[in-house]
Design a protein that fits this description.
Elements (H helix, E strand, L loop, with lengths): L10 H11 L3 E3 L6 E3 L1 H20 L3 E2 L5 E3 H5 L2 H7 L4 E6 L2 E9 L4 H11 L8 E10 L13 E11 L2 H22 L6 E4 L11 E8 L5 E11 L1 H5 L4 E2 L5 E2 L2 E8 L1 H10 L16 E6 L3 H17 L5 E3 L7 H10 L4 E6 H5 L2 E6 L5 E5 L3 H26 L1 E2 L4 H9 L4 E6 L3 H11 L2 E4 L20 E6 L3
Parallel strand pairs: 3-7, 15-16, 15-17, 20-21
Antiparallel strand pairs: 1-2, 4-6, 5-6, 7-8, 8-14, 9-10, 10-11, 11-14, 12-13, 17-18, 18-19, 21-23, 22-23
Length: 475
């Protein structure tokens, strides 16, 4: 097993080492693409399952749209195409000949879906449309990084249509809180701040973008999800109208929302340490690994039989028995620590002679003997403590690296060392936002959902602040 870099020495290298050595993913043959290996995909499947259950519980259905559509559809919504133009891949030649009309490879699906909604929506009785799709997307990234930014990635994207603005905004916030925040905090154990994006940081074509922002162990921000209120922009661009309850033609209000395989990268960077991954039990593909320790065939048979009984006693807990021969226990311990399995059970003949096993926690690092009769209770307690411990540690780390700088000089200095979230009053002007970005590379990660008077001058220009903004360097 190769050595991984220390976070404190080289965080980007540490991240690459963990992704490689934990067998999560590797680069594909085409620039910027990613091969997701089985263990990495199992983590994504857990995220997908948890999120999909929440999406369906809020009344949405899944559908699927093609990944190719006429490029001309993108051009109908000017702000949207302007926002995505640098990232769009276009197919102009196929089947041995030039295409009459170029095809866009899906960077996001608002255009093709709203062009189709024009056929589906005629009356208020057809609304709301509450749909979601799980799909791949292609965006031509200049600086790809596995899971975080790749040319092709996996995600879900919701696309809904509503009678009124109030209903559509309520939908966007419902997904924001009950699907995304609930999954990210309760399953991934990553604490997030929620709020609005500034106008400059909004999704292309959106009236409002709601975001969840998390802090990684290198003090950079990661956008965990976004939920957008799109107004009637897409309905108007694609000719979608309906007869309202008074028989008048109206434009439906739209939302779209998405979360992607970037969340796998977020789990790595929010919880990982110098030994590798630390997975929250609610997410971990393997919650408990049992490592039998034995010498000789007779002893091995006895220990394996006991290991199987322990696994069966753990019921629905996701358990794996590592019974590989010719691999030393110490190597197995290190490998499962690297892969972030929350609980390890060590079981040998001496343990059996004393009617016990040794329980090791990946999060706390503690090891302790537990009687065979109490393994189920002990494992349940260890898993609960690991889930809570990872979340609490991440909250403490984020709070420790959240600052309220008094001026631009202090904001810039704190961003360099130690880094983190910078909270300050802002006048709301694009000029001040641009100045911070130009001088520090930091962007506004979010502003509070409710516009409240910060009671302080703008940290950039000194004019009266209109709201509080949180700046940070981000992935």
């Amino acid at each position: 097993m190769a050595q991984i870099a220390k976070q404190s020495d080289d965080f980007p290298r540490w991240y690459q080492d963990v992704v490689r050595e934990a067998e999560l993913a590797e680069s594909g043959m085409a620039r910027g693409t990613m091969v997701i290996r089985p263990y990495g995909f199992a983590i994504w499947e857990r995220i997908q399952r948890e999120m999909d259950d929440r999406i369906k519980a809020t009344g949405h259905q899944n559908f699927y749209f093609p990944m190719f559509f006429p490029y001309s559809l993108l051009e109908k919504e000017a702000e949207h195409v302007e926002g995505f133009a640098p990232e769009v891949a276009i197919v102009s030649h196929a089947g041995g000949e030039d295409l009459e009309e170029p095809l866009a490879v899906r960077p996001t699906s608002e255009a093709v879906i709203w062009a189709t909604y024009a056929k589906w929506i005629q009356s208020y009785r057809d609304l709301p449309l509450l749909y979601n799709q799980w799909a791949n997307v292609v965006r031509w990234e200049l600086r790809p990084r596995l899971f975080l930014r790749t040319t092709e990635f996996l995600w879900q994207e919701g696309h809904t249509a509503h009678e009124t603005e109030e209903e559509a905004v309520r939908e966007a916030l419902l997904i924001h809180e009950q699907v995304y925040r609930d999954t990210v905090e309760k399953v991934l154990a990553i604490p997030v701040h929620g709020g609005r994006k500034s106008a400059a940081e909004r999704f292309a074509g959106a009236v409002e973008t709601f975001t969840l922002e998390a802090m990684m162990r290198d003090r950079k921000a990661l956008q965990a999800s976004t939920s957008h209120y799109l107004g009637t922009n897409f309905a108007e661009a694609y000719g979608v109208r309906f007869l309202d309850r008074e028989g008048k033609q109206q434009l439906p209000h739209a939302t779209s929302w998405g979360a992607s395989t970037r969340l796998v990268g977020g789990v790595i960077m929010a919880h990982g340490d110098d030994q590798g991954l630390r997975l929250p039990p609610a997410l971990a593909p393997v919650q408990v690994v049992i490592v039998p320790i034995s010498r000789g065939d007779e002893e091995r048979a006895r220990v394996l039989e006991a290991a199987q009984r322990v696994a069966e006693d753990l019921g629905e807990t996701r358990v794996q028995i590592d019974d590989r021969e010719g691999v030393r226990p110490g190597f197995k311990f290190n490998e499962w620590e690297l892969k972030g399995v929350p609980v390890r059970i060590e079981l040998g003949s001496r343990d059996l002679d004393q009617d016990q096993v040794t329980l090791a926690s990946r999060v706390s690092g503690e090891k302790a003997p537990v009687g065979l009769a109490g393994v189920t209770t002990g494992v349940a307690a260890a898993l609960e403590a690991a889930q809570r411990g990872l979340y609490d540690q991440a909250v403490a780390f984020r709070d420790e690296h959240t600052f309220r700088p008094k001026d631009m000089d202090e904001l810039a200095a704190l961003l360099k060392d130690p880094g983190g979230f910078m909270v300050a009053a802002w006048c709301g002007s694009a000029e001040c936002e641009t100045r911070v970005k130009d001088e520090t590379k930091a962007t506004i990660r979010y502003v509070p959902q409710d516009r409240l008077d910060p009671g302080a001058p703008c940290i950039v220009c000194g004019h009266p602040g209109t709201e509080e903004a949180t700046w940070g360097l981000a992935y």
